[in-house]
Design a protein that fits this description.
heterodimer; A: alpha+beta; four-stranded antiparallel beta sheet; B: 2 helices
Chain lengths: 95, 325
């Protein structure tokens, strides 16, 4: 069994995840509204209750990659002084 | 060694399932299903807060979760996206505050929602600045310029008694610390190590701390200020930069950092330990830093190359297994 569930869900703000949720299951958000959720009953229920759309790890990684690429292109187009202030977004490998 | 019954007047009970945390507070019991002793302790973790009104990179924050303030920053990497907008937070919603006189990223910030000091930072075109302002809950007032231009300086205290320290501009200034007494700046004892764009905070200038982030990059350093000099404390477990923090010199957290990590470390007055991680990796983000009640009621939001999300940091009663380690 996979350690994680992958999905997309829009962070609606307060109440999206609770203190208890964080104690019940692993939760990690990434660009593109991608969430990596601990693969247990409570994690699965949480993702479903948030209107989440389950993705394969490869699908989730592709969404994140597209977002990161767009950020990197924006950074590459910035001025040298801006580049000196803001570090270039790095690639993200989902767990 | 005294027996548990002699101390508490009752035996350690054996149960097959744990009582709710609210019932088990103050008790120790033996769980016969898992064959371990358990009790109820305060566990700190994160919950989602109300999203910021917009994405905010390299923004600044002060106050606490129920009375927070965010100012400056940008909506992206270009100078045209720099912000002078200000928003106040009550733990449930963000409302517009008085516009910041500066349109900059990486300003220092310290204080409460109604007694914030902010200043320095980077702007385009031009560079870094000595401009500083105080916020009273409705508007900003310009104050005496800081003795040196800052970007990513640490800060502690309030609008009437503050400490600023470090910067990531010039090697000649990034150990400096200066106090603000409400009318003028005075030179204070220098940091032992350079500091820039890391975790800082404290409710008073005498309880300031600096964690991580030496010039020009990662560090495990931790320093505390006692009102006259900086002392080097226990090191962080993870070398980090662009992290943020809140609390005081005796109880604080270091949160996130380059390159958008979720790592959290907590300091209990004597050592650092790994805490429950954030849900979203962040670097150069806004956070509370006042910490009059320790790290309870902390918040973080936004961040470079990030989103508009906000997370709250609180302790709550939870069943814990007792171990000898």
């Amino acid at each position: 069994m996979s350690l994680f569930i992958y999905g997309t869900a829009t962070n609606t703000g307060k109440g999206f995840f609770t203190h208890q949720d964080r104690l019940n299951f692993f939760l990690e958000g990434h660009p593109g509204n991608v969430w990596v959720v601990g693969n247990n009953e409570k994690g699965a229920v949480w993702l479903a209750s948030k209107g989440g759309v389950t993705k394969t790890k490869e699908e989730a990684q592709a969404i994140v990659d597209a977002e990161v690429t767009a950020s990197q292109e924006a950074w590459d187009a910035s001025t040298d002084s801006e580049k000196a202030t803001l570090s270039r977004p790095s690639n993200i490998i989902l767990p | 060694m005294s027996a548990y019954k002699e101390l508490f007047g009752k035996y350690v009970r054996s149960v097959s399932s744990d009582p709710p945390a609210s019932v088990g507070t103050g008790e120790i019991w033996y769980n016969t299903s898992s064959n371990v002793f358990k009790t109820v302790g305060q566990v700190f973790s994160w919950s989602s807060g109300t999203n910021l009104p917009s994405v905010r990179w390299n923004t600044s924050g002060t106050g606490i979760q129920t009375a927070g303030l965010v100012f400056g920053g940008s909506t992206g990497p270009s100078a045209g996206s720099f912000l002078n907008s200000v928003f106040e937070y009550n733990g449930s919603s963000w409302t517009a505050g008085g516009t910041n006189p500066e349109t900059r990223i990486n300003q220092f910030g310290a204080g409460t929602q109604t007694a914030t000091i902010g200043g320095g930072g980077y702007y385009e075109p031009g560079g870094n600045t000595t401009a500083a302002n105080t916020y009273d809950g409705s508007s900003w007032t310009g104050i005496t310029a800081t003795p040196y231009a800052t970007k990513g300086a640490g800060a502690a205290g309030t609008s009437t008694a503050a400490l600023i320290y470090g910067s990531d501009i010039s090697p000649s200034d990034n150990k400096d610390s200066y106090s603000w007494n409400g009318s003028s700046w005075s030179e204070e004892g220098p940091l032992n190590n350079t500091f820039q764009n890391g975790a800082s905070g404290g409710p008073t200038e005498n309880t300031a701390f600096a964690a991580g982030s030496e010039y020009p990059g990662n560090s495990t350093r931790f320093e505390t200020y006692n009102g006259s000099s900086w002392a080097t404390g226990p090191s962080l477990n993870t070398s980090v930069t662009q992290n943020r923090g809140f609390g005081s010199s005796t109880e604080c957290v270091s949160v996130g950092g380059y390159n958008k990590i979720t790592t959290v470390e907590t300091f209990n007055g004597s050592s650092w330990s790994v805490g429950n991680s954030m849900s979203t990796g962040r670097k150069q983000f806004a956070s509370s830093n006042f910490g009059a009640s320790g790290v309870q009621n902390g918040w973080v939001g936004g961040g470079a190359d990030g989103d508009d999300s906000v997370e709250h940091y609180d302790g709550a009663a939870a069943v814990q297994t007792i171990s000898t380690s």
